[in-house]
Design goal:
This is Transglutaminase domain-containing protein. The protein has 9 helices and 6 strands, in the order H-H-H-H-E-H-E-E-H-E-E-H-E-H-H. With 239 residues, it is an alpha+beta fold. The strands form 2 sheets. A 4-stranded antiparallel beta sheet has the order 3-2-1-6. It has a two-stranded antiparallel sheet with strand order 4-5.
Length: 239
Amino acid sequence: MAAEDDPKRWLGDTPMLNLRDDKLRLRVKTVTQFSRNDREKLVAIANYVSGIPFDVPPFAPARYTRQVLSRRHAVGWYSKAALFQAMLRVAGFPARVRMIRVGHDMYRGLAPESGVFVLPVVEVHTGGRWIVTDCYVYDLPYLAVAREAVLRAGWRSGYGVHVDGNSEWDGVNDALVMLGPEQARDPANHAGVFDDPQGYAETLRSRSPALGWWAAARNRLMSIRLHRQVRRLRAEAGG
């Protein structure tokens, strides 16, 4: 556990993060150039990533940071987490992804299936401690229409958001929009911390190749439904 929480452990590169990419490094410099302190740098990076429209492309694997920067559209939970984490590391902040098990309540309205899925949230080391956020995930138009749909349905959570979630991150405290505080704190929902979202899939495949490939196939098939519902929800709100 001590090694896992050592900030120096979470600064390295991976193929998915691609920290040496010139475009990524230039983007981080541009995004943070007017920030006066670490808190403002963190918020600026989160705001940049959240501004990329949220979607779940059908059959698409998690994208590398260079692809996300080039397209700036049609990226989901995994790809956005990787970009946010990569930008944090380039800016000098230790960052890791914690994989969280989420039940159907979180994504109902987007997909009719029941069952548990595993999604990333990002933890960043700042001010001498680890803090967690997922406020980089949703762009403001999607967040507004998703929250309205949840309230209209009379749910506590759905469409990827929780009514008790916090969509505004101050760069100092924990802030999660997908989950309620009790869900995020429950160790039973934690599936480990990794260098990037692909790390979880690789670990799953190494433990059980059949289970790993089954989970990947299941996620690919579900992406069709998620993509269709995200587009429908945006269309209902006028784009």
